[in-house]
Design brief:
Rossmann fold; alpha/beta; 2 domains; binds calcium ion; elongated; 4-stranded antiparallel beta sheet
């Protein structure tokens, strides 16, 4: 029940941070299992799959994954029970877990977080959202909180090493401050950054940024992002975030 394939080499735009990261997908529904595995492989992860909690435990014992995508509804040990077992196990108590919960089941979400899951995604979900959550959780659990080398979300590519941003393969002509803003947002898709946090993050680059000029910079950034401009969302009264 294990397939471990590194597809990173087949996709030139993938970041180095996904290489050698093993994600275990625990789901008994074949369609969802395949869809999740396919998208993980496309994003450069190593993938292992299990259709039950018992299988998952066997695989985890053989090689500890870097993250587990865990469905709540499983035959045998439920996803919640498996999550609790992992949290009690000294070896695996810090293993990042994203739960897949049933649509509209708020009880699942509460129980899941209570069982020690780090995050959850409700079914049906978009693969892009799940991939963003996986990347964000891996970064969080990586401890250093550094931006990934390359971030690729829905045709928006941000490469911190080459100082390059592209939309659908077209390079964006950004100022250093605009680039720093985009890199900040892309490093944590979905997270809301306050204007103060944005200033704090960008100040290190030696550019004068005031609260009001953040808005001006965002305006300029959006204009250059073309069709991807909608990805930079204003969160009223707080700040901005990258939506996926
Ligand atoms: Ca299931």
């Amino acid at each position: 029940m294990i397939e471990a394939v590194n597809a990173a080499g087949d996709h030139g735009t993938l970041g180095t941070d996904t290489e050698d990261k093993l994600v275990l997908v625990v789901e008994d529904e074949e369609d969802i299992q395949q869809m999740v595995c396919y998208n993980l492989l496309r994003n450069g992860y190593l993938v292992a799959s299990a259709t039950s909690g018992e299988d998952a435990l066997g695989l985890i014992e053989k090689r500890r994954p870097d993250l587990v995508v865990l469905d709540i509804m499983l035959p045998g040990i439920s996803g919640l029970d498996l999550c609790r077992m992992l949290r009690k196990d000294k070896e695996n108590s810090g293993l990042p877990v994203i739960l897949l919960t049933a649509r509209g089941e708020d009880n699942d979400v509460v129980a899941g977080l209570d069982a020690g899951a780090d995050d959850y995604v409700g079914k049906p979900f978009s693969p892009t959202v799940l991939m963003a959550r996986v990347a964000a959780l891996l970064r969080r659990s990586g401890g250093r909180g550094e931006a990934a080398g390359v971030i690729n979300i829905e045709g928006l590519l941000v490469d911190s090493n080459r100082h390059l941003a592209e939309v659908d393969g077209e390079e964006l002509d950004l100022t250093p401050t605009e680039f720093a803003l985009l890199l900040l947002f892309a490093s944590r898709p979905g997270w809301v950054f306050s204007r103060d946090q944005i200033i704090e993050a960008v100040r290190g680059h030696g550019y004068a940024v005031t609260s009001r000029s953040v808005d001006v910079q965002i305006f300029g950034l959006r204009k250059k992002m073309g069709r991807a401009s909608r990805m930079v969302e204003t969160v009223r009264g707080i700040g901005y975030r990258l939506v996926v």
